[in-house]
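Exercise 7. Predict the structure of asparagine synthase (glutamine-hydrolyzing) from Catellatospora chokoriensis.
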Amino acid sequence: MCGICGVASFDQTPDRDLLLDMMRQLVHRGPDGCGYYRDERVALGHTRLAIVDAAGGAQPMCNEDGTRWVSFNGEIFNYVELAEELRGRGHTFRTVSDTEVIVHAWEEWGEDCFRRFNGQWALALWDRRARRLVLSRDRVGVRPLFYAHGAAGLVFASEVKSLFADPSLPRALDPAGLDETLTYWSTVAPRTVFAGVEQLPPGHYAVYDESGFRTAPYWTLTFPDRAQPVPDLRETTQELREKLVEAARLRFVRSDVPVGAYLSGGLDSSITTAVVARYTEAPLHTFSLRFSSDEFDEGGYQKVMASALGTQHHDIVVSPRDIAEVFPEVVRHAEAPLLRTAPAPLYLLSKLVRESGYKVVVTGEGADEVFAGYDIFREARVRRFWAADPGSPKRQRAAELLYPWMVRSPGQAPAFARSFFGRNLDAADPALSHRPRWDATTVLKRMLSPDLQAAIGADSADPAGLAAALPAGSEHWDPLGRAQWLETTTLLSGYILAAQGDRMLMANSVEGRFPFLDANVLEFAANLPARYKLFGLDEKYLLKRAFADLVPEEIRRRPKQPYRAPDAASFFVDGTPDWFDDVMSAQAVQDAGVFRPEQVAGLVAKCRRTGGEQMSNTDSMRLMAVISTQLTHRTFIAGNGGATAAPALPALQVAVDLCQGDSAFDTHHGGNA
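Solution. The predicted structure, encoded as tokens:
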């Protein structure tokens, strides 16, 4: 895993000092080495976390004659098979890295090469002969890629703080981006929360040449017609097992450094860990997150699984105070407002991984989206059942079956459940599944300042527009497919894989690998009948069947409990953290211009009275929205763009500068300078 950045212009030679400044802000993503390539049109920068081909895989990397260069962040897990095919077509390789496969695949297949990659990536490829820069991002957005147009030209990078090394870029929050965050929990690509900064959408590539900048999809998530024949259950179960075993095995064995595994105690990480233990021979170290509060802790289940597999187990116990202390740094790495504290414990967990000598972990992330594990899918099924006969008392009571893991579950408050889940029961609404979540989040916008509300204006987040963006033919999908598409398009790429995934892992120079997001698993799961994913209200039905022999029944049958962390209470237990009053003062809120200072003051006073405990879900989200947005403003807008104090670049491994007559090009054609 690495950090990539660059500058491209057809009007001026890219500035070398700017490129180096951009690279400095990505050292945490790649502390093992760095390199750059520069010519009269393009400069590519790279900071390296050496995982595959440590000796020969330094970047930027080129083809045989130096006409095509790539800076790459990620892994192409089927690179061995692709390299063999490309050699058969006459291509010559100088390394055994997955990076070199990219330049040869581009030579052979052009834009079609991205469909052939099975992996997680963000890359920049400069085709010197065609005078064309190509950017690409993996199917579901595991790896980030941001870009902006400034005085230096097109600047692009793995993180926004690297872009902000360009002093010509404006530093301002984008009202529409904030509005989307306060609706969907994150922005929807290409939008970000920063004015003038965009992100390449998952499953897309972009081309920048003398004709301009344009983007296009190379992959789209689709689901089958709901009337398709139902395949044989036994055969389908076996096929799923084979695909997921291969996905997990590849992510464990295709590495030149040891690979660990996250073990949450839930079904998904238990499956991936069990597969690694069964189908590989390497000693397995597992890493778990625990909480000082019993309400959030899953330590008992973690011990059951670790004991069953005989792993070398490591865990960290996180308190509310721990969350509050690291939260400013968490927001600096997340580069966005957060409506939950959940990324903070994961930041501390990845720190434990790195301190234990590991820089790669396999995780169970993505299974809930791919196999319909979230309660939001169960909720949608209940609401659709209810919508068929809204006046039926029996159907109304179905809402009481939802969220059994919550202390204040719908079953404990049936009248509230009927009131909350009974709104917007339009069976024809393609976004029926997500209306309750979006409605609940939208109330946060009542705290926005009048000026910001006016700035949002007609650009207000439009759930109807998002639903209208569903692919052609989606009206024939099962409703579960539409719900999965919405979840993948919003929460998965914008929050789960970003704020909780890549950004918290890479903050501590750790690469995450996600078997459930393997290209073959993704395609297979998308084409499953809805009943094989959500059978009645039993989530992940086929997945549980496929691995019944590897996961103890105690874990396989446990109630679904999503990962959660203490929110509002984290900032008021034993007093507020040192930074709190400065960030949340009336003057600071006024200066940021996002929220109404008087409403923020009232909310904070309420939290102080209660210690932040027993806050409603809405008030807790309000507080998190304000705290994280204030930190985002202080760090990136009022501050120095998120930059740290000029971190030193690691050892320069590749330096090819055709604008300075550098002779390194004569000795570097594949990886080593």
